Amino acid sequence: MRTIETDVLVIGGGATGTGCARDLAMRGMRTILVEKGDLTHGTTGRYHGLLHSGGRYVTKDPQSATECARENVVLRKIMPHCLEDTSGFFVTTPWDDPAYGDVFVKNCRLTGVPVQEISVQAMLRREPVLNPRISRVFEVMDGSADSFLATRSTALSAEEYGAQIWTYHHVVDLVREGDRVTGAVVEDLRNGERIGILCACVLNAAGAWAGKIASMAGVTVTVLPGKGTMVAMNHRMLNTVVNRCKLPDDGDIIVPIHTVAVIGTTDVHVPDPDVYGIEPDEIQFMLAEGDKLIPGFSQYRALRAWAGVRPLYKDRDVANDRDIPRTFKLLDHAERDGVEGMLSIVGGKWTTYRLMAEESVDALAKRLGNTRPCRTAEEPLPLPPTEHQTTFRPPVRTTGPGASVAAEVEALQHAPLYWLGKHLAEVEREQSFADLICECEMASRSRVLAAIDAGAKNLDDIRRDVRMGMGPCQGGWCIYRTTALLFERRGQDGLSQANSNDALLHFLQARWKGLVPVLWGDQLRQARLDELIYVGVLGADRLRPIAEQGGGLVTDNPAVATEYVKA
Amino acid sequence: MDHIELSLTQSLDHCIKCNICTSACPVAAVTDAFPGPKYVGPQAQRFRHEGQPVPDASVDYCSGCRVCNQVCPTGVKIAELNARARAQIVAERGLPLRNWLVARAGLVGRMSCGPHAPLLNFGLRLSPARWAVEKVIGIHRKAPLPASSTYTFRAWFRKHRAPATARRQVAFFHGCATNFYEPHVGKAAIAVLEHNGFEVLLPKQQCCGLPLISNGDFKAATSAHEANVQALVSYARQGIPIVGTSTSCTLTLKEEAPEILALHSEDVQAVAAGTYDIFEFLRSLAERGELKTDFRPIERHLPYHQPCQYRAHRLGSPAMDVLSLIPGLVLEESHAECCGIAGTYGLKKEKYQIGMDVGAKLFDMVKRSGSDLALCDSETCRWQITHATGVTSKHPIEILAEAYGLEL
Ligand SMILES: Cc1cc2nc3c(=O)[nH]c(=O)nc-3n(C[C@H](O)[C@H](O)[C@H](O)COP(=O)(O)OP(=O)(O)OC[C@H]3O[C@@H](n4cnc5c(N)ncnc54)[C@H](O)[C@@H]3O)c2cc1C
Ligand code: SF4
Ligand code: SF4
Q: Which Pfam families does this one have (chain A) (predicted)?
């Protein structure tokens, strides 16, 4: 077994782990990050897409609210290309306690969450589809955020500072010598090779899997995986995030992100973060809740459903699961369990990932005698090669609680903020409309090739980079095109036809999972056409015998398979 | 939002990306500048939102012929989505002078129509003048511009003496072309209607607004339609049919203006329900046995092109049906999607050649027929056919008047 030495081993390539790797590398510590799947394979890649204003937590979890409010501003400055300044409404519908509005505003003030009440007429002028029976509207600084892009950009920065990012490397064991964790054994899922990593410290950022990792070192960390299901609708019928003005509950937010509007979420405890199902009644419930915010919401075309698992950390002294705070917790296992050489960072939100990384790395640096300050809040993130080098700057918000921050961010003259029309505008500018691989999401050949060249290990990785296959047809037209490009590009490196076939089948199966829960109406019709394309025309149902894993792709490893089962 | 509006705005959700529209679109077939209906319609629509900057420009190459709507298996209102997208572009980036001008056929007609028309027409036939017009305004030097008439249809009608034998009334919507360029089409229509026992009333009217819609000037189009509705609604309410010879004007009153401009008042609906294309109206008379059939035989074999705007009425082929009653007359249908002019589209410098290429199939068919006369219901299509083939073209109502032996 090959062995490698480093200062810090970060486990988990979600927002938190990647943020930690960047911070570590920027402070000059030798860092290796291992992730069993692609970056964002875990919860980060299956979340709701909301850049929290903090409004959601002002009453139940004030500390989280304050953290979100602060990080919201920081992220706007360091990753504008990943964020859309949608703004957000908290609205009192006829189903909500009208008294909560005043409580909400008071608590926003207490927690430092900027808020401003606007009239219902003003709300309807901006978002005519919203329920006219809404009685009060509070505007906050919500936004939407592309976590794939943000994590990619963070990883790119980490690499520029010297960190190594190893995706498709599965931690199979931690090495413990006496009271000290000294390293880990990881398996390269592309070829089964095992590698030993010796390090001064392990940083466990495995989200909902943090308990599993800790147990490898004989330490008990209780992370209760809380599954949340979301449904994406086929187009954005609104441009502003809308939340119900009440205590957080199921199906109470609609987030416009990229080309879709996503309603979510549910919250159901599941025994294992890799095994969960999406239930018909969850979907039905959320669509019905959506109707309260947007009359007729359930009649719009549903595109797809998916679920992610919340990494809820249960402290030893918490008796009732409901009282688990949503804020994050840094566990120093030397103090907590008498085991040196390992920290775990658990809980939290995507929005607070950078702060979580900062606190973790502060503690780690102290331990390793590094005194360099954290600079992740000031230095903007680089753009990955799959991004257009766009110059168009969407108009800067001039009203509402986000206006002053918007002006401040604009003055920095970093990359422009994301806006809905961005990819269409770029395709029009390049006149590349005849060269679209994924037509629904406007992913051109050059961007798909950039994703392949950047090291994508299957079609799902390419999807995360350029949104290929995420639109209305769910891959009907782009899966076979992308497979062909992958084969053309990687053929010389030993990728065979059989490997490419396997990649195609793998991705078709992955798309199908998210379609099953919403198979009615237009999406059913779409699935029928897709079936005709893949089964009727291309004979994909007879491909299995001539499909084979390999060629540097990871298509079917149990370590990264998320099982959707009927619970 | 009412259901008509929702059926438009939400229709993008029905797209299953099948590409049928793209393979049928006559514009996408001849130019790479136009990515096709699927792309500019339901696909691009997911990237657009009112209140956000306009991301695209290529949708402006849609001619509005509505072929895509007819072939889409899931009922996406592609052409309407495109028209609205163009209007957003105009609202954000402004309307070029050229488009402002060609969208105002009525205004231009009013200025050029009259005793000075021959001089003006002569001037516009000179190539240096057309060259200048192309350079300064952007109207292609070869594009078929109609010749202005020395008198307006309305002026003629004022002096016209109706027969006293009328039993029923119709209201006539002549449109700009008949009024300023082709009064003879209106005269033929009046003659046919009066011959069939109708008193023809002439309501006040403006341009139907279609050129404004297709050039994205929704503000002006809305006021035009509202004025027309105000002038026409009393006829509709009294049950007096509103009949027009321009298929695109009648389509606009019936459907395009209400849908695309989102005008859904009861008055708008009443006018829409009470408006008929002239051959739709005559065919319904024939079906009830109320159409006079005292035709003289016309022993001719003529090419006939049903304009795309007429097919969008979804009525079958009313002109063919009625003309088939004329003994001896044989019409050969063009089966062409579009002549390429699409109202004002083919006049534009950058679109002239696209328009000519779109119409190539039709022009071929007309030329191959060897006939010196072609029939077509829509004025701009007639001008395009004549321009491209040198063959005279007439409105079918003129042949019908001839078959009745009516003096014009
Ligand atoms: C349904 C839902 C909606 C949410 N919506 C929002 C939202 O809108 N806004 C917001 O701010 N937050 C949201 N959150 C919270 C947010 O998504 C998470 O807090 C955040 O993504 C967690 O990131 P992470 O990096 O800590 O964990 P993860 O993203 O889960 O990363 C952990 C990684 O560790 C890897 N890993 C596990 N085991 C191993 C191993 N043995 N070897 C190697 N790697 C391993 C996993 O593959 C995974 O990629 C949502 C959460 C859920 C569940
Ligand atoms: S209206 Fe005509 S030109 Fe426009 S997209 Fe449809 S078929 Fe093509
Ligand atoms: S024909 Fe209709 S369903 Fe097919 S691609 Fe065109 S708009 Fe979509």
A: DAO (PF01266), Fer2_BFD (PF04324)
